[in-house]
Structure formats: C-alpha cells, structure tokens
Write a structure and sequence with these properties.
mainly alpha
Length: 197
C-alpha cells in the first residue's frame, strides 16, 4: 500500500514537473521572441507607437520578466530539487538582483534604473549564453564546474532545445530589449505619425 502511494506521488510530481518545464519554456520563448521583435521594430516606423507604449511600462515589464524567471528558478531548485550548477548560480545572482533593482526603480519611477539594470542583465546574458553553448558542446567547458552538478549536462530540453540556461538567456534578452527602447520613439515627428496612418 505504501509503495503504491509513493508511486502515485512520484507520478504526480513528474506530471507537475513536465507541466512546469513546458510552462516556463513557453514563457521563455515569448520573452525571447518579444526581445527580437522589439529590437527589429526600432527600424520600422509603423511600429514606433507600439514601442512608445512599451517604453512607458518598460521597467514594470522588465521587473515582471525578472520575477517570473526568479520564480521559475526557485521552483525547479526548491520544489523539484534540481541542484543548480555554478553557472546557474552566477545567472541567479544577476536575475535575483534585477528583481530588487527593477522593483525599486519602478516604484520610484526612476528612469535612471536602466543604467544599473542593463549592465547586470548583459552580464547575465553572456553567462547564460556561454552556459547554453557548453550544454551543446561540453568539450568547451573549462572544468570549473562541480562533478555532482555539471554545467554541461542540462536537466531537460523542452521542445528539444529549451534548457534552463536558454530560458535565462531569453529573460535577460527581454529585459535588455525593454530597458533600451530609445527615448526617441515616444516623441514621433508629425510627418512620421501621419505616414503611419
């Protein structure tokens, strides 16, 4: 009877884990696609009104991305007991700090928060990109990671390519894209506005 209960509990946990993997993978893909779209939209005059509206809420949206990424990383490590590797810890340092920095900046309506958050997100993006690279090419790993939680072995790959490091990279990219929307998009020239109509 106890064995049957344990098996049922493990099956429920596996279903929860699979749902969480897919849920956070989809969030990451939305964030990554959004980052690419925001960067590309800077060269499309018709998209400037959308960018202008995004810019007014950019700090709050960036905080939301950081908070979701933090919640995901805590869920996988604290609930599902996935042990973070050293690279994961470095990414967490950047992402967890961004949650605090962006929240304070958003509450204070401090436009200068971009100067603090973008470098932090850029460092996180570089680390997560390297981490993703060594997951596919373990021979590039410098041997600095722990043998019990190796950086070159992903816990999972949703849709065949979305790992935890990929999710982090998408989050950092979205934060950078949101916080670097040019100020010029908020003040459209009258001629550009009429051309867009």
């Amino acid at each position: 009877m106890v064995g049957a209960l344990r098996t049922a509990g493990n099956e429920g946990r596996m279903i929860t884990m699979l749902f969480a993997q897919r849920f956070f993978a989809l969030l990451a893909l939305v964030a990554g696609t959004g980052a690419v779209a925001m960067v590309a939209a800077r060269w499309v005059p018709a998209a400037r009104p959308v960018l202008a509206q995004l810019r007014t809420a950019a700090v709050w949206l960036a905080w939301l991305v950081a908070a979701a990424a933090t919640a995901g990383s805590l869920y996988f490590s604290e609930v599902q007991n996935l042990v973070p590797c050293k690279m994961c810890w470095f990414q967490r340092i950047c992402m967890y700090s961004l949650v605090v920095v962006l929240l304070v900046g958003a509450l204070r309506r401090d436009a200068a928060v971009r100067w603090y958050a973008v470098p932090l997100a850029s460092i996180g993006l570089l680390i997560s990109s390297y981490h993703y690279l060594i997951e596919w090419h373990p021979q590039l790993e410098a041997g600095s990671c722990d043998i019990t939680a190796p950086c070159s072995v992903p816990y999972f790959r949703v849709f065949g390519f979305v790992s935890l490091s990929f999710m982090a990279a998408c989050g950092f990219a979205a934060i950078i894209a949101l916080l670097t929307i040019p100020r010029s998009v908020t003040s459209l020239q009258p001629q550009e506005a009429s051309d867009g109509e």
